[in-house]
């Protein structure tokens, strides 16, 4: 049987730097665990724009549709800030998400014990934290029409539209309830039903899906602004949070700081099952291209490495190998290995991106 296929789109800024460390883990899986992938690589974002004048070529899009999983680094950067909106690096990523119909974006925020003192919140608030934000990823204000900048009388008006259909809400709710059943059986849905009609519909449909198919799961509803406050006040009250595209974007960056660094947060963007029964999938760190540290060997590769671990679990049915990678990360952190973003107030000597990758590979060796 052919090896499972993996398309790597490293992208811009620190994307290629963190992806180089993931490649070490992929190599290790092949050499030491006999887990082989058919790996191909291509360009996305600013890198694709530089080469082809577009942030995602049709050929790359077609390849992404064919493979078992896509692994993406990050896109964007100041070099591309002045480009026309339609060819900005971020449009490449949004096209991938939309055309692959990756409606369910799982963003786990887990606080490793060794990092509990590095969070901006107190240790007791974050220690042992393990929550997942399920962000709707292919609709809402990111994609709603009408949109654009228009002239209205003697001034301009910028328009974006928040739009959700029942079926879009129902399918992401279902994925959150399914996930909850594998965890603590608890879902909190967040919207702003107090001010937005789309929020009223969101709340109703999530409740209907619950009552019809998941009555065994504990469901609560919260306004997203209060949810942001509760995430900072006592995040351990949550297990699975389901929310829309824009609120999910904001809440997941906030959740990142509970874990110590944005450089720690992986994500899986999942769509409908393919012929092999596995979901169409793209895995990417929550962070961006980090222009302020790009090219300096300072980036933390853990978010990207943990994204690959999610691929092992969700796309390749290799849950035990995913756990092995996660445990290796945990061990390295427990041993005090830290990239610069994980330096606590007491300071210390940070390791480079490559040294962090090497330490994780060494921990994998030690796991055998
Ligand atoms: P960012 O996530 O790139 O950086 C925010 C801060 O976090 C920076 O100080 C950065 O140095 C730090 N940081 C992020 N990842 C890190 C890592 N792995 N290790 C250590 N420190 C890390 O967000 P931004 O600065 O708002 O955006 C920069 C560019 O990235 C923009 O063009 C934006 O559109 C893009 N972006 C892309 C993605 C993506 O590709 N998925 C996600 C977010 C932002
Ligand atoms: C993310 C990013 C993206 C988003 C951008 C780069 C399109 O912030 O993945 O969180 O807004 O979804
Ligand atoms: Mn974001």
TrEMBL record:
Catalytic activity: (2R,3S)-3-isopropylmalate + NAD(+) = 4-methyl-2-oxopentanoate + CO2 + NADH
Keywords: Amino-acid biosynthesis, Branched-chain amino acid biosynthesis, Cytoplasm, Leucine biosynthesis, Magnesium, Manganese, Metal-binding, NAD, Oxidoreductase
EC number in record: 1.1.1.85
InterPro entries from the UniProt entry: IsoCit/isopropylmalate_DH_CS, IsoPropMal-DH-like_dom, Isopropylmalate_DH
Sequence positions that bind substrate: 97, 107, 135, 225
GO-annotated molecular function: 3-isopropylmalate dehydrogenase activity
Swiss-Prot/TrEMBL site (Important for catalysis) positions: 142, 192
Main localization category: cytoplasm
Pathway annotation: Amino-acid biosynthesis; L-leucine biosynthesis; L-leucine from 3-methyl-2-oxobutanoate: step 3/4
SMART domains: Iso_dh
Domain of life: Bacteria
Pfam families named among the record's database cross-references: Iso_dh
Catalytic class of the enzyme: oxidoreductase
Binding locations of NAD(+): 77-90, 288-300
Subcellular locations according to the entry: Cytoplasm
PROSITE patterns: IDH_IMDH
Listed SUPFAM superfamilies: Isocitrate/Isopropylmalate dehydrogenase-like (SSF53659)
Gene3D superfamilies noted in UniProt: Isopropylmalate Dehydrogenase
Chain sites annotated for binding Mg(2+): 225, 249, 253
Cofactor: Mg(2+); Mn(2+)
The family this protein is said to belong to: Belongs to the isocitrate and isopropylmalate dehydrogenases family. LeuB type 1 subfamily.
Annotated function: Catalyzes the oxidation of 3-carboxy-2-hydroxy-4-methylpentanoate (3-isopropylmalate) to 3-carboxy-4-methyl-2-oxopentanoate. The product decarboxylates to 4-methyl-2 oxopentanoate.
Subunit architecture: Homodimer.
Matching HAMAP family: LeuB_type1
Name of the featured protein: 3-isopropylmalate dehydrogenase
Organism: Rhodobacter calidifons
Gene name, Swiss-Prot/TrEMBL: leuB
């Amino acid at each position: 049987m052919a090896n499972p296929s993996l398309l790597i789109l490293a992208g811009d800024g620190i994307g290629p730097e963190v992806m180089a460390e993931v490649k070490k883990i992929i190599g290790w899986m092949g050499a030491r665990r006999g887990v082989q992938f058919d790996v191909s690589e291509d360009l996305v974002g600013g890198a694709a724009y530089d080469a082809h004048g577009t942030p995602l070529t049709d050929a790359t899009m077609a390849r992404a549709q064919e493979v078992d999983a896509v692994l993406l680094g990050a896109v964007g950067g100041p070099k591309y800030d002045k480009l026309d909106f339609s060819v900005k690096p971020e449009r490449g990523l949004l096209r991938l998400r939309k055309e692959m119909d990756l409606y369910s974006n799982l963003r786990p925020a887990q606080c490793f014990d060794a990092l509990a003192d590095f969070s901006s919140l107190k240790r007791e608030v974050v220690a042992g934290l393990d929550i997942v934000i399920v962000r709707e990823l292919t609709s809402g204000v990111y994609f709603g029409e009408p949109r654009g900048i228009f002239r209205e009388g003697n001034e301009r008006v910028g328009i974006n539209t928040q739009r959700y259909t029942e079926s879009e809400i129902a399918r992401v709710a279902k994925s959150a309830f399914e996930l909850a059943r594998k965890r603590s059986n608890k879902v909190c849905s967040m919207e702003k039903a107090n001010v937005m009609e789309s929020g009223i519909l969101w709340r109703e449909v999530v409740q209907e899906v619950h009552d019809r198919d998941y009555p065994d799961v504990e469901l609560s509803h919260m306004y997203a602004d209060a949810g942001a406050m509760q995430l900072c006040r006592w995040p351990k009250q949550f297990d699975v949070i389901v929310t829309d595209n824009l609120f999910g974007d904001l809440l997941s960056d906030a959740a990142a700081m509970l874990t110590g660094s944005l450089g720690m947060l992986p994500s899986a963007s999942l769509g409908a099952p393919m012929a092999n029964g596995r979901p169409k999938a793209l895995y990417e760190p929550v962070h961006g291209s980090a222009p302020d540290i790009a090219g300096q060997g300072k980036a933390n590769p853990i978010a990207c490495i943990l994204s690959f671990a999610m691929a092992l679990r969700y796309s390749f049915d290799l849950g035990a190998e995913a756990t092995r990678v996660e445990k290796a990360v945990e061990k390295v952190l427990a041993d005090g290995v830290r990239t610069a973003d994980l330096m606590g107030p007491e300071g210390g000597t940070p390791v480079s991106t490559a040294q962090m990758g090497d330490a994780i590979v060494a921990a994998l060796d030690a796991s055998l």
